[in-house]
Amino acid sequence: MSTPTHEEVIRPMTAADDAPVAALIRECLKAADLDRPGTVYFDAGLDHLSQFYGAKPNRNYFVATRDGQVLGGVGIAEYDPTHGVAELQKFYVHGKLQGHGIGKRLLRHALDYAQQAGYQSVYLETYHTLKTAVHVYQEFGFTSLSGPLVTAQHQLMDQFLLKKFA
């Protein structure tokens, strides 16, 4: 029997992560009072994210784990492939672990993946009450847009940001 390392690992999600990741996302949205229509809370595929992220190249969802427990996750998928734009999706960290750097490590991992996958920029949608998240995005070079690049994926979202790779 192997001994737990107690170290955080960031890795691509597997089907075994579907239930804990869906539970994490719902828990975070509920805590932020965003467990309502117009958010990912009601996405039909939320319970099977590994299928979505595994269906095409240049798409992936990463989980941060420690001792087999999912601490957080973040996805990258095509948004506007014609213009080389990826979307940062479903980025959540357990509430009790926020502020400990896990989110920043996940975000850096996702952005590195997007750049290596050949995307020229990364787009995201969020909500104005998530001020800490918006601050972190800005720290990582995201700039605010006046509206969605194309059409908002989740109608309740009202903050749109873009990061261009140099």
Condensed summary:
This protein is of the alpha+beta class and 166 residues long. The protein has helices at 18-31, 49-54, 102-116, 131-139; strands at 8-12, 60-66, 69-80, 85-93, 121-126, 143-145, 159-164. The longest helix has 15 residues, at 102-116.
Q: Secondary-structure blueprint of this entry?
A:
Layout: E1 8-12, H1 18-31, H2 49-54, E2 60-66, E3 69-80, E4 85-93, H3 102-116, E5 121-126, H4 131-139, E6 143-145, E7 159-164
Parallel strand pairs: 4-5
Antiparallel strand pairs: 1-2, 2-3, 3-4, 5-7, 6-7
Protein described:
The protein is of the alpha+beta class and 166 residues long. The chain has a single domain (8-164), classed as 3-Layer(aba) Sandwich (Aminopeptidase). Helices cover 27% and strands 29% of the residues. Helix 3 (102-116) links the parallel strand 4 (85-93) and strand 5 (121-126). The mean pLDDT is 90.
